[in-house]
Design goal:
heterodimer; A: 95 residues; mainly alpha; Histone, subunit A; two-stranded antiparallel sheet; 3 helices; 4% strand; flat; B: 491 residues; alpha/beta; Amidase signature (AS) enzymes; globular
């Protein structure tokens, strides 16, 4: 199945990815090939097959609700582009 | 050749430990000699993103002191390399991406902490496909790694830098990660040993996530014995990883010497179909004959849904990647675009600039298969087929203890040959992906050469059968010397 440029633009928007014109052309071609390739799955007979949830059929483990970590906010924020008073700064959201 | 006649860089971890214990050389001397080799060969191979020479020498000094007082751990003074997907406190951790070009990890991954606590000396961080998405190391923002056996060839990927470093004798061992073959395929293409343990066997805390139902940490070495030594330290329960399995770790090193007499080795009929290079097929058949000469019994088995494993993977892995990589938003860490108009513009441009082509392609594939109206047709369907594939393995393992076959369909391919066609590249992982989909342990062992390029024998076992794989590989390496071959330019 071939994807259209509109579809690829929609996908890129959902994924929050800005693409150049050239990248759009490439993506339409290559994503269409990938979708064609994975379309093989439609031929598999999966009637009454349960979707796999975990490779070892394990359930999610729970831990006691106890404080185990220490606050290292200043240390972690060293990797952020813009912080102030312990907060992360982003462009203005509300005018 | 006895260990004492070999150059330090050519010795295994077992041989190096003997040399350190006897006082033949110190950990500082050993570390210096390998750092010299990295300085000499590093650029040529492009195997490293970061070399941590100062930290390595300091760790080596500590190891020598610990040895003097008898306090050293299991890997005391042994140099290793970490794939740059593992977070290392105070050291740049890029994951092969521009997105994390300036990221200094604030903490150590559990694997990193465990190996350091055992006395290992970290020489640096190895190059890799961006976010581990690739089979050739060509998607790295830091340029492709070269294969030490032929510099015009790919070392495989995504753990290509780790594999090239071990093959070129820049380190005896390196960590890796494997989501669809990223330890085993580069091991095969560089003539090294690579093991991907059972899903959940090794902690993933601090290992940057790609596809969470498939990712597993492992190791690349030159001998199965060294792989056992590394895995013995790395494996085990970690409460910080919610997928970690709480099961005792067997004595991997102690189990190596056991016989493989009577071991049932499954030969998969579908493995020898048209896709496999006939010269590689010959090496694989000869290596199975070696196992038989040691008393193993070859049994034919079927994996009828083998062909569906690659398309299944290319739905499940991108879907999980699109979710995992949503954390890179230019706000808390990672690349941030300049002069954003608003928050949406900040997200879209930071991600557009920070990610490379293959990563964007996988995020978009994942976004598509998870989007409204397509979820059932792709994601749900793929998880059903995944069940069929896991059941095929379960049936096979009712009759055999281990499955043996090719790791990759061909020896190393030329850099540039497959990068423009994603499907051709994806099909390189056809023999390895099944183990990830079913959560099984898998291992590649050097088993021959085709036109001067290494070939790997792939061993897969039932869940938690690492001990069997290591024993089988060790036994094979006692009968063969493929792993002793060193690429000519790196002797």
């Amino acid at each position: 199945m071939s994807l259209s440029k509109d579809q690829v633009q929609h996908i890129a928007m959902l994924a929050r990815l800005q693409l150049s014109e050239n990248e759009y052309a490439q993506s339409v071609e290559k994503l269409s090939k990938i979708v064609d390739f994975v379309d093989q799955l439609s031929q598999a007979d999966t009637a009454r097959v349960v979707p796999m949830a975990h490779p070892l059929d394990a359930a999610q483990r729970l831990r006691p609700d106890a404080v185990t970590e220490t606050v290292e906010r200043d240390h972690f924020q060293e990797n952020a582009a813009a912080v102030s008073d312990g907060l992360y700064l982003v462009p203005k959201v509300i005018e | 050749m006895s260990a004492n006649d070999r150059e330090l860089h050519d010795r295994s971890m077992t041989e190096l430990t003997a040399g350190l214990d006897s006082g033949e050389f110190t950990a500082v001397e050993l570390t210096r000699s390998l750092l010299d080799r990295i300085a000499r060969f590093g650029d040529q191979l492009n195997a490293f993103i970061t070399v941590t020479a100062d930290e390595a020498l300091a760790a080596a000094e500590r190891a020598d002191k610990a040895r003097a007082t008898g306090d050293g751990g299991a890997l005391n003074g042994l140099p290793i390399v970490h794939k740059d997907i593992f977070c290392t406190r105070g050291v740049k951790t890029t994951c092969g991406s521009r997105m994390l070009e300036n990221f200094i990890s604030p903490y150590d991954a559990t694997v990193v902490a465990k190996l350091s606590n055992a006395g290992a000396v970290v020489l640096g961080k190895s190059n890799m496909d961006e976010f581990a998405m690739g089979s050739s190391n060509e998607t790295s923002y830091y340029g492709p790694v070269k294969n030490p056996w032929d510099l015009s060839c790919s070392p495989g990927g995504s753990s290509g830098g780790s594999a090239a470093a071990v093959a070129a004798r820049l380190a005896p061992a390196a960590t890796g990660t494997d989501t669809g073959g990223s330890i085993r395929q580069p091991a095969a293409l560089t003539g090294t040993v690579g093991i991907k343990p059972t899903y959940g066997r090794v902690s993933r805390y601090g290992m940057i996530a790609f596809a969470s139902s498939l990712d597993q940490a492992g190791v690349i070495t030159r001998t199965a014995e060294d792989a056992a030594r590394m895995l013995a330290v790395m494996a085990g329960f970690d409460e910080r990883d919610s997928t970690s399995i709480d099961q005792p770790v067997p004595d991997y090193v102690g189990g190596l010497g056991k016989s493989i007499s009577g071991l049932r080795v499954g030969i998969v009929r579908q493995h020898f179909d048209a896709g496999l290079d006939p010269h590689c097929a010959k090496s694989i058949r000869e290596s199975i004959a070696v196992l038989e000469s040691q008393g193993a019994k070859a049994v034919e088995v079927d994996l009828p849904n083998l062909d569906l494993s690659v398309p299944t993977y290319y739905v499940v892995a991108p879907a999980e990647c699109s979710s995992n990589l949503s954390r890179f938003d230019g706000v808390r860490f990672g690349h941030r675009a300049d002069n954003a108009d608003d928050l949406l513009d900040l997200y879209c441009r930071s991600r557009g600039e920070g990610f490379g082509d293959e990563v964007k392609r996988r995020i978009m594939t994942g976004t598509y298969v998870l989007s409204a109206g397509y979820y059932d047709a792709y994601y749900l369907k793929a998880q059903q087929v995944r069940h069929l594939i896991a059941d095929d393995f379960k049936k096979a393992f009712a009759n055999v203890d281990v499955i043996a076959g090719p790791t990759a369909p061909t020896p190393a391919f030329k850099l540039g040959d497959k990068i423009d066609d994603p499907i051709t590249m994806y099909l390189n992982d056809i023999y390895t992906i099944g183990a990830n989909l079913a959560g099984l342990p898998g291992m590649s062992v050097p088993c021959g050469f085709v036109d001067g390029l290494p070939v790997g024998l792939h061993l897969v076992g039932p869940h938690f059968a690492e001990e069997t794989l290591l024993r089988c590989a060790h036994n094979y390496q006692q009968q063969t010397d493929w792993h002793d071959a060193c690429p000519e330019d790196f002797k």
